[in-house]
Amino acid sequence: xxxxxxxxxxxxxxxxxxxxxxxxxxxxxxxxxxxxxxxxxxxxxxxxxxxxxxxxxxxxxxxxxxxxxxxxxxxxxxxxxxxxxxxxxxxxxxxxxxxxxxxxxxxxxxxxxxxxxxxxxxxxxxxxxxxxxxxxxxxxxxxxxxxxxxxxxxxxxxxxxxxxxxxxxxxxxxxxxxxxxxxxxxxxxxxxxxxxxxxxxxxxxxxxxxxxxxxxxxxxxxxxxxxxxxxxxxxxxxxxxxxxxxxxxxxxxxxxxxxxxxxxxxxxxxxxxxxxxxxxxxxxxxxxxxxxxxxxxxxxxxxxxxxxxxxxxxxxxxxxxxxxxxxxxxxxxxxxxxxxxxxxxxxxxxxxxxxxxxxxxxxxxxxxxxxxxxxxxxxxxxxxxxxxxxxxxxxxxxxxxxxxxxxxxxxxxxxxxxxxxxxxxxxxxxxxxxxxxxxxxxxxxxxxxxxxxxxxxxxxxxxxxxxxxxxxxxxxxxxxxxxxxxxxxxxxxxxxxxxxxxxxxxxxxxxxxxxxxxxxxxxxxxxxxxxx
Length: 532
Ligand SMILES: Nc1ncnc2c1ncn2[C@@H]1O[C@H](COP(=O)(O)OP(=O)(O)O)[C@@H](O)[C@H]1O
Ligand SMILES: O=P(O)(O)OC[C@H]1O[C@](O)(COP(=O)(O)O)[C@@H](O)[C@@H]1O
Ligand SMILES: [Mg+2]
Known about the structure:
Blueprint: E1 23-24, E2 27-30, E3 41-44, E4 51-54, H1 68-79, H2 85-88, E5 95-96, E6 130-132, E7 159-162, E8 168-169, E9 177-182, H3 190-204, E10 208-212, E11 226-227, H4 230-233, H5 253-263, E12 267-272, H6 274-289, E13 295-300, H7 316-336, E14 340-346, H8 353-362, E15 367-369, H9 383-393, E16 396-402, H10 427-442, E17 447-451, H11 454-458, H12 464-482, E18 488-493, E19 496-501, H13 502-506, H14 517-526
Helix pairs in contact: 3-12, 5-6, 7-8, 8-14
The structure holds adenosine-5'-diphosphate, 1,6-di-O-phosphono-beta-D-fructofuranose and magnesium ion.
Magnesium ion (MG) binds at residues 184, 273-275, 421.
């Protein structure tokens, strides 16, 4: 069997042989994209019985082959192999790790007497250690949220690489010039990750550490590097933002790599989301093409939580926590007004994770609207009709809407930001206006208050759980680079820390699966019906 495409493996799903674009189990399908970590899927919509099933590339896996499962597992192993320096430099020399927690004296002193090491210390990860990607064994493809490979939902093992320090390293610390860069929008925890990368590099013995200012733009000629050390970063995590600054857009990959080579950078730590990681992978490939022994390691930063395969990305927990303040204010405003309606818009360009989790956490949301679940505002099943019911029965209501939801109601401008992301219209303002209009026309106006806390949330410092996540991710990024890996990113998967090849986590944005238990829990909590 040839190599399976990323679209099929790891995520997909259900009876390829029995599913077509128009029906599944007799339920007619309306074709719009849906579902968690699943591309090419069909959403089967039936009031109160919403299902998502896959429209996989049906011909790619031959389930009549008795060997399909082992072939699948082998193929998965290959896809999730993490690129190593030895792949292109078979003669690359390794050294005993300078990272050893039994050393009492700082290892950043000169290495004239050789590298300190302690063979008795069992703190290293073996390169063959693996973490299981999927941990639920579904007994039926109809189980809620089931992610199946074949029609019988057979148990298939999908193993990924465990992160952490290796016994052998592929860089001499005194030869390393490490650079850190933060790209895209702000996200709580950036400073925590920067800080931990610097601290861990110093523990290995690296002395040349710099920050590249304002994202990839900093590789342009006019911006100077920022020297970093433990002293510089010691307290940076006490405030939000990024010590280095962020930006969108910037030079092309070839110019970035030219600049890295001019500066002598041989380790690059890239903090950013999908776009940033696409850039990091392109930089990694370009460096390989040029035969450069450089490690490029990503740390996923996305407040929207839209990176594939990970339990969560840093900053997300903090965002959900901070969103509570906005929701609570909206609730109090709505509750204290005569026929009061609170509307809160939360981040999430293509993924409703923040809105969903914030709704769940607050217990104050009556209607949660996310990009993954289509809705109507008007009509017999529309949001406004339900809102009317809520005002009649409860006297007030609170709506939480993700920024990417309901874009079909807004005029498209085709405007893009410097990174090429579509600039969205403001769905919060639109909903506010439509509610006002609707109730005015009904002859019983509603008192609508709209809150958009986006930039207040993004600028926060990380909370405790994100602080821990950032710390571990930062450490693992450094361990990965020293171990000789490149073109990888770090993450948390089923509570364990892992390394993943970049292309696997950015092939499309991770979204909320409308058939997942979590979305069902959210619906249970809000009590909202389908709005179609
Ligand atoms: N496909 C791509 N290839 C190379 N660089 C990219 C790509 N997409 C975005 N970038 C660059 O990555 C940086 C961050 O991208 P952006 O989409 O703004 O944020 P995020 O990384 O959070 O998705 C920008 O400097 C942008 O120019
Ligand atoms: O106003 P900006 O800086 O362009 O950012 C807006 C975007 O930033 C985000 O918070 C996420 O940005 P990133 O993709 O860079 O992480 C989105 O939710 C939002 O659309
Ligand atoms: Mg992006």
